Amino acid sequence: MSYTPDTNRYEEMKYRYAGESGLQLPELSLGLWQNFGTDAEHSVATDILCTAFDRGITHFDLANNYGPEPGSAETRFGKILKEQFAHHRDELLISSKAGYPMWPGPYGNYGSRKYLLASCEQSLRRMGLEYVDIFYHHRPDPNTPLEETMGALATLVAQGKALYVAISNYRAKDALQAKALLDEMGCPCILNQVRYSILDRWTEEDKLLDALDGKVGMICFSPLAQGLLTSRYLDGNVPSGSRAGENNSLKANSITPLMVERLNKLNAIAKGRGQTLSEMAISWLLKDERVTSVLIGASSVAQLEENLRAIKGDRPFSKEDLEAIDELTV
Ligand code: NDP
What we know:
Elements lengths: L14 E3 L6 E3 L1 E4 L10 H13 L4 E3 L10 H13 L8 E6 L14 H15 L4 E6 L8 H13 L3 E7 L3 H13 L4 E7 L6 H4 L2 H5 L4 E5 L21 H4 L10 H16 L4 H10 L4 E6 L4 H8 L10 H9 L3
Parallel strand pairs: 3-4, 3-10, 4-5, 5-6, 6-7, 7-8, 8-9, 9-10
Antiparallel strand pairs: 1-2
The structure holds NADPH dihydro-nicotinamide-adenine-dinucleotide phosphate (NDP).
């Protein structure tokens, strides 16, 4: 039986416009990169998605290769959509992407028109959708003309397979070129999805937010540095079942004594603000109004609930807190 969403689901969440578009994203979005693939427990995956929607998270972020196995997160998401959300499609923002290796041969990777159009079609089939709300080029392709890649995105909009298009992992210079090309085609680029957290500041060095100037929104992935900026590793141990325990995208050897010391100092600042470390890490990103949304992952409902507390109330950062955080991250 499908669940009945909470009638108060829009009361707490705040929404921000994606760049100059009319599309609003929740301040907190949920990504399905991990925890939704073949190995995931279906009931846990379902509970996470339903809880998210109950709390105003309308945006679920996917990509062709999310799994493992690649494609399996989209397949599971499609199943849960059908089981639980059949009557709520118009309340959901569903995104997918192509740009990383997906199938063998020269047409299953990077940014050719051939790859993007076929991949979007495959994603739609896996999710059982007629269209995605946002389709991203997942990463820059140095060997394909940007005109071709952006042209493929514009074609997806013209075909009705994507409502909006966006880019991911683009540096400021390339992002501005992509935007200009899409503008010429009458197909605005609404977002650049990039890695940004207290521990990872490449976007600041790149002056990306200044370059985008609010015209293209920024959605920040791995805001918790894959779990480092949570209570997960504060005692220096790597719990079984944690991402570092998997030793895949987050390496167990990144939990060094120096890192643990840093995380504990950050945690002390968070405590002083009346927050947990993960709440502070999310608030820290949302303090800049040019950030459209913070894109978290969660392996349990409890994690999601904790992270959602970050959007409750206004907790401005003092100059002292900001300086202390900066000192611990560079
Ligand atoms: P996070 O930095 O939010 O890390 C999420 C992980 O941190 C969880 O799976 C969990 O790991 C741990 N965690 C989260 N909350 C808590 C908590 N409160 N307490 C303890 N542990 C917690 O983001 P992700 O790295 O998962 O990325 C989020 C999304 O961003 C992805 O799903 C994807 O949609 C997108 N993304 C995009 C990329 C791109 O190239 N465009 C690349 C990477 C991600 P665990 O319990 O397993 O230890």
